[in-house]
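Q: What would this chain look like folded?
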Amino acid sequence: MAIRINPFHELYVGDSVRPDKFVNLFSDVIVEHALALFQPGHVILKGLPGAGKSMLLNLLKPSIRLAYENAGQKFPVPHELMKFVGAGINLKRSGISDFGQRPIGSEVQNESISPIYFGDFLNYWLVSDILHSVKRFSLEAPNENLIKLIGIDYSVEKINHFAQQLAKLDCWQGYMEGTNSFEDFQQKINSRITNYRAYLNYNINDLPGEIHSSKSLIGVPVSQTVQLLKETGVIKTDTEVYIRIDQYEELAWLDEASNGLGTSYQEVIHKLLGMRDTNVSYRIGTRHFAWTGDEKMYGSTSRVEKKRNYTEISIDSVLRRRENQRTWVFPKFAEDIFARRIKLSPYKFSESKERLISKVFGTRISASEAAVQYVPNDYEKAILLDADWPPAWKHFLIGLAHKDPLAARLGEAWARQKDKQAIVNEGKWEEPYPWDKQDKKWWKKERTEQALMQIASRNRQQLIWYGKEDLLGLSGGYILTFLSLCQHIWDVWIRDKRNESVDVEMRLPKIDTVIQTAGIRETSRDWFDDILNQKGGKERKIFVDYLGTMFYKTLVEDKAMSYPGKNGFSITIEALEKNKRIENFIADACNYGDLYDAQHTSKQPNKKGRRKFYLNPILSPYFKIPY
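A: My prediction, written as structure tokens:
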């Protein structure tokens, strides 16, 4: 028997998705905006949780590259940038947080010596994964073309010779002595990693003595391994090696549990970027709050510098809407991901992927239609008339409200901003009305959403949220928000249809306005409640609640609609920089996605640089304000 299925039930797929499923889920729309990941040089990849960092970094994994090859699908990276071997570590999934649960050495020594052991563990993990990647490509590539493209020449004789030479290098501090084959080398590395994990989880009393006496310098074994792979011909000299370090923010969260050691561990990773090593290129995936732009290297007062030591890519900045809507990447990205989710579900459709969102959710109703729905019983409630207004003007607005409630509300605001008697003296009010004329199009456009909000409030109606345009706008360029909206709306639709027979043909549903509005409000409420679950969330939630309530009150009580931009607040950059506590608090609110910010020019005579801050658009339905 057919059942109703929510294609968006699983929001996060990032690092846990199977390689074969990844091929069908991953959208290549974003790749062209992150090409630095596939070129030499260190890269910091920043984004909110669920923005797509791990999905992008997954393209560096051999398992994903092989999955594309096995599926006969084109790897979503330009051909000229495909000559690379990828390896790395996910700091959360690897259990790196265990370094915060048990000290190494005495408590006095722990703070100074633990970062060295952390760096040693990281070295061995990364070397192990580089060797694993080379071996996997060699053994599992479905054809020789891929191996030749990457530039790998793997034979038992060559790889054993490489391992013997590698074991002799000073970077191992004697730990690899006696290693005679590639398998021996791998076993030695795996044994060291296993001992670290056993110790950190209290399964052994101490690390083996050979580990204490052979700690390696951060990054050196990694660099020398890659160099020797090229010198011995295992990989070509022009084959790039890209090392991903994902979920870097895990180290920031260690600070509270480990007396600040998380910061020291971060500084160890910063040292990898500061080495300016041309043998390997590092890619660090992180949330905004964990990478401040003022990163110090371990054991030094030096700092890594943007552009000089690394390139920075912010997925959120790439996908966020700018003033020029034609350059907005997010709609195409959302369309592609929506289509991929539907294709993996049992639902049947014939439309092109560019029309699927509109097929299911429709397009936003016009502002005039929305206004009519907000005044179902008494159109005159769309306007408020002052007792001293000329009778002719009041009569005109009442008549207009029955015909077009939105136009009447705009006319009311126009009169409140202008001289009422002058308006009366015009004699006739015919279309186009003064507020509808071409030279006033921006006046009308900037006030339409506020007018709808006020009409709904005056009639005690909820705002209508509906259609593709609202889903994209409320998402704010953030794909997790978009998927969350789809998930909640689909859940509400399933609940609404629970007593109806299921369409056995599994055709895509067309979800109506009422269901979408309910699902969107549900999403917004959950998003607001989730602020509490992040670090510092209690204070930020209070702040966001204050802002949202203030914006609603200000916008709904402004009868003249004289300042429709009061859905955000503006601060001079100079004032922010003078108060670090406030600057840091607002920066955290932006980095955790509670606020969006933009620089703008002040209208004040001094023309000082300012930053304007808005609530994350998804919070708008909760506070009943325009996004």
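The longest helix spans residues 107-140.
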